[in-house]
Amino acid sequence: MLTQYKFDLTTPGRGFSDITDEIAKLVAKTDVATGLCHIFLHHTSASLSLCENFDPLVQRDLEAFMQRLTPDGDPIFHHTAEGPDDMSSHVRTILTTSFLMIPVSDNKLDLGRYQGIYLWEHRLRSHHRKLTVTIYR
Amino acid sequence: MLTQYKFDLTTPGRGFSDITDEIAKLVAKTDVATGLCHIFLHHTSASLSLCENFDPLVQRDLEAFMQRLTPDGDPIFHHTAEGPDDMSSHVRTILTTSFLMIPVSDNKLDLGRYQGIYLWEHRLRSHHRKLTVTIYR
Amino acid sequence: MLTQYKFDLTTPGRGFSDITDEIAKLVAKTDVATGLCHIFLHHTSASLSLCENFDPLVQRDLEAFMQRLTPDGDPIFHHTAEGPDDMSSHVRTILTTSFLMIPVSDNKLDLGRYQGIYLWEHRLRSHHRKLTVTIYR
After folding, report:
1. How much is the pTM?
2. Which helix (H) or strand (E) holds A57?
3. Out of A85, B22, C53, C92, which could bridge A72 as a Cys pair, Cβ 3.0 to 4.6 Å?
4. How far is CA C65 from CA B77, B133, C62, C97, in A?
């Protein structure tokens, strides 16, 4: 048995948006004791991540790492129609993930102590992003 | 309730094969209104990806990025039994993914407008690749 | 219908621990003919991988690759509270995955011939790691 929700989010531009509470509320509302929660992002220039949730420097360092690995305006890229952050965003999405699947145990989202759920916007400017959450029991 | 399919594919060598239609047809045939579709690739030198489906330059740029990040014949690699593209293919697989899980909503595979499902062959030569598709409602 | 198991593991420090047999035993015990097996790691400095299971040089080369890509003590990192292997471990986790989902077919875990399931410890020292396995039919 499953329940599916759609929701969307406007990101402030490049960076991490913590969506842990929003997902946890959907799990609570669905009243599943044991199961799995699937989260899917319908885009190719933003991704989902289970990031360390305690020290904001981790997010800063992940951005610095990605900027070194796949810089905006990289001269090896030919897909530049939407600007210098277009192709680097597709690469960052491919190197991370567009979906997560997290256990539900004892009626709650069973994340590790330091795991948070983040929508990672890779485009420099604000974007409207759609997600689908499917919860199985 | 679930339905499982096996299928296979011969790739033309390194590059992207669009399998979106093949997966969408399995979903249609299964007649699931709401659920999840899981796709699994049984190999360690090719991967699956949710790649931008509009501009073919994106695929070209992803290959160029991977060739810079993990070039064939990289002197740091010792696992070279099957040639210079052997270990670079394992690395590319580990950095991407061997499985996808995509929502089914309103009786169809609910991809974003620019998301396509691709089998990404990392070996230079043609290979025979096996997949398993499992659809839950 | 689903069955969920919790287990944990003490890693010997950085490197790959093969957990294929442990997962296969849980699948056998659950007696599922056709389904999916989900494995989740509750940590942000270790990951799961479907790695080539035949030649140990592959694991050696993957470590060498990661050490070049995201070296311990990288001067671009500011999150260094737990030492030089702290942030590089978070990056390696983000570039790989914290969960796997593998088909069950004919009553067994349906891995490819060369696919093994590995817990990849990224911290240099031994750590206690918790996992949740959820099996659906």
Report:
1. 0.98
2. helix A57-69
3. A85
4. 8, 31, 5, 17
